[in-house]
Structure formats: C-alpha cells, structure tokens
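Thread: Newbie trying to understand structure tokens

Hi all, I'm a second-year student working on a class project, and my supervisor (Dr. K.) asked me to get a predicted structure for one chain before our next meeting. I've only ever worked with sequences, so writing a 3D structure as a token string is new to me. If someone could post the tokens and maybe explain what I'm looking at, I'd be very grateful. Here's the chain:
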Amino acid sequence: MKLKYGSIKFSPFQFPMWLFRSLITKYMFFDYPGISFQKDGRKSFRHLDGYQTKLEKYYNKHKGQRCFLLGNGPSLRQMDLSNLKNEIIIGANGIYKEFDNLGFKTNYLFFEDTEQTFLRRKDINSLTEITKLVGLNNAYYIKRSTDTVFFNPRHGFDLEGSPKFSREFASGVFLGATISYIMLQWAYFLGFSEVYVLGIDHNYGELPKLFPPGKIEITEQNIHKVRGLHFSDHYYKIGDVIGVPHVDIQNKAYEKANEVFQSTGRKVYNAGVNSKLEAFEKIEFNSLFTNKT
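---
Reply by user tm_fold:
Sure, no problem. This is what the structure looks like when written as tokens:
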C-alpha cells in the first residue's frame, strides 16, 4: 500500500519518520531551547540558533560584489563557462549534475519544488562542500546537516498582481512560478550589486501550449516535448514529474525583481545566449572578463 503527498508516493512505514522530521525541522526554523556542549564537556541550556537566525547571518555577506545566477537551460551547452571558476555562483535543482563537466561547484544551491526535490533527495543529501538551501516544504525527506539551511517559501502578490519581492529573505521568500525568482531574492539579500543570469532561456517549447500550468508526469508519449528544455536531454526520465510553468507570472516576477534591484542602485543583467527573457538588460558574457587577468 502506498500513500500520496501530492504526486509523491511513500510507504506507511516512511510516513511517521518523514512527518516527525518535517515537524522537527519546522520547529527549528526559529530559535529554540536546547543543550549546548562546552569544550570541557559541561552542558548548558540556552536558546540555539534556528534557521531564520542562520539565514540572517548571510545578510549583506557579499555587499558590492557581483554574482552569476545559473539556470538549467540548454543554452549552457553553447557557452564556455570556465571563467566562472573563481566567481560567486548561485544554482538550483539538477545543475549539480554538471559540476564535473563545469569544473566547479556553485556556491549556493537551491531546491524548492516538491517533486523536483523529492526526485533528487538522495543526491541532495549526499552533496557536500556546498551551501544547500531547501524550502521548508521539503523537510520531510531532506536530512538536516551543517551545510543545509531551510528557508520559508510563501505566496504573496501586490495590488498589480505581481509576486511580492522579499527584502528580508531570512523571514520568508516569495514564490514567482520559478525558482530563479527565489535565487534573485537571495542575491538581493546577500547584497550583490550586479547579478548576471545565465541559462534562463525562458523557452518551454510546446509545453505551455499543450498543458495548463501545473504538474504532469513524463510519459513515452510526451517525453519528446521535454527533451531539449534543459542542458541535458537526460535531465528527466519517463515517470518523473515536471512542472508546466505559468509564464505570465514568471514575467511579472522577473519585472518585479528588476524594479527592486534598480530602485536600490543595483542591476540584474541577462548574460545568456538564445534567451527569450526580456525583463533584464542584455549583456555579452565574454565582455565581463576582458579586464581580468
């Protein structure tokens, strides 16, 4: 017998463990009472830092610096990204599968979508030497570790119908129908003055025409519609669940991010190739390294 959480199936034996893990992780989002062990072996009772406090410590960590935000679009295969080796990089979802080919890891790696995170849970739990940021909604099956920080995703729209933009990531971050929007709010919170997006092709082929926004299972009949939408044709396989994006909300989200960055004298650029993303000013990628030795 299998139980379901959305499209996720699990056994009755897994449910109590996952539920307990989720409740504990959510409890630990705020500071909580606990036991602290001293170097001399003594124990003391005090409030321990919750994930909100841990996130707060990242505020303006990279103030005035630049970063690169990697999407997972097929255009990445058309670019020489070797110059990024010594840059600060924010990535998401399955980009970790490209680390060996890229020759470097991203500094920060995001996971929020329930199905995508569940699909990669074993890989995520085994990834090391990287800061993993995971939505609290995935606390069921993602283990707590020193390099994993949970954040609080929320829904929210302004009066114009655009997704809200969080300037206080530690307290909560707003969804915008794409994980890239969460990454942009993180970049803002860290204080970057220049953000360059790559691989956000904003091109979903025929999917938005054939299916309404939401989740669909990849089958033998539709997998050809999915291939070519990511940097690898093996990004998904038959039986996986993929999200059909709400492109209108995404466009509003990107425009909101651009507006917020510009209002504080900062800038987001689209440095990718063959990208249909028009919300950010285009810039040629290689020009960003002409003055570097």
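A couple of things are worth pointing out once you decode it. The longest helix spans residues 247-263. The chain has a mean pLDDT of 92. Feel free to ask follow-ups in this thread.
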